Amino acid sequence: MSAETNQNSTAPNTISIDGREIPFKAGQTIMDAALAAGVYIPHLCHRPGLTPHGSCKLCTVDIASRDFASHNSDRRVQIKFSVDADSRSVSACTAPAIAGQQISNNTPALNEVRKTITQMLFIEGNHLCPSCEKSGNCTLQAVAYHLGMLDGHFPQFFPHREVDASHPTVMLDRDRCILCELCVRASREVDGKNVFAIAGRGTTAHLIVNSPSGKLADSGLETGDMAVHICPVGAILIKEHGYEVPIGRRTFDLHQVGEIGLEKIVLAKTRHTDE
Ligand code: SF4
Ligand code: SF4
Questions:
Q1: Residue 275, CB half-sphere, CA atoms under 13 Å: how many?
Q2: Ligand found nearest the CA of 176
Q3: Average pLDDT value for residue range 3-16
Q4: Which residues line ligand 1 (CB under 6 A)?
Q5: CA 37, CA 164: separation in Å to the nearest integer?
Q6: CATH number of the domain residue 19 falls in
C-alpha cells in the first residue's frame, strides 16, 4: 500500500522518526508533528506560526524510499556524507507528514550534512562571536555547538555588508544575517508591514529595507514589532540594551537548543519593559 493510500484509510495517522511512532493531524508537516511530539529537528529558518520557508536546509531528513518513487539521486552528496541512496531527502518544515513515512533525523550522516551547512553559514558572513551581543542568545551559535562544530572549515568570505544604524531604537548589522527571512515573514505576516525583503540571488543575495531611502529610519519599523525580535542571530538588535543579561546567564547558557518551545523563551527575553 502506498503512503498516500494509507493516509486515506482508517489507519491512525502516524509517521516514524528514528524508529519512534509519532501521530500527526491532517495538514501538518513533518516538522509540525515532530515539534508537537517533542522531537527536535535542527532548524534556523523555521518558526511555528510563520509560513514555512525551507531555505536553511538544516531540517533535512531522509524518508525511506519504500513507498516513494523518487530517490536521493545526488551521488556527490551520497559519497561525501554516506547518505542512504535508497532514501529521499526533504526539508521537514515544508514536507507534509504522510502516514507510514519512515523518517531518519538524528543520524551521524544527516548531522554531518547539517554541520557543513552551519559551517557555510559562518564563513559566508562575518561572525565574531566573542564580540557579538547575541552570543549566548544566538540560535546559529547554539546549533553549531549542538552539532559539534569546532571551526569554519572553509575559507572565510569576509564580505563587505552595510550596517544600518539609522533607526532610533533598532540596529541592523547585515554582517551576521543568514538570510533566513524570519524578519521578512514576521513583518509581513504578523506586523502587517513588509519592512524587509531579500534582493539578489546566490552570493549577491542580501537583506533590504523597503523604505524610500532603503534605511530603517524611513521604514515603519517599531521596537515592539515581531520582526525586531525574531532574528535568530545578531543581525537585528535593540539599541541601548546590550549585555543587560551577562554571558553565562543567557538562553543557551541555561538551555539546550533542542529543547522544544525555546523560541517563546527567546522571544520573551528579547522584549524590554520600555517598549
Ligand atoms: Fe556568533 Fe551568532 Fe553573533 Fe554570529 S550572530 S557572531 S554566530 S553569536
Ligand atoms: Fe534572518 Fe535576521 Fe537576516 Fe532577518 S536579519 S533574514 S531574521 S538573519
A1: 19
A2: 1
A3: 63
A4: 127-129, 132, 134-135, 138, 140-141, 176, 233-234
A5: 40
A6: 3.10.20.740
Q: Convert the pLDDT of each residue in 77-117 to its tens digit.
A: 555 555 555 689 999 999 999 999 999 999 999 999 999 99
Q: How far apart are CA 205 and CA 202, in angstroms?
A: 6
Instruction: List all residues 6 or more positions away from 93 whose beta carbon is below 8 Å from its beta carbon.
Output: 29, 30, 31, 43, 45, 46, 52, 53, 54, 59
> Is residue 134 in some structural domain?
yes
Cα 118 to middle of ligand 2, angstroms: 15
> What ligand has the least distance to the C-alpha of 131?
1
Domain of residue 179: give its range.
128-271
Counting from 1 in the atom list of ligand 1, the atom nearest the Cα of 141 is 7
Ligand nearest to the CA of 139: 1
Same domain, 74 and 137: no
Atom 4 in ligand 2: residue holding the nearest Cα: 183
Same domain, 162 and 242: yes
Q: According to the model, what pLDDT value does residue 203 have?
A: 85
Q: Is the pLDDT of residue 219 over 60?
A: yes
Please tell me the total count of domains within the chain: 2
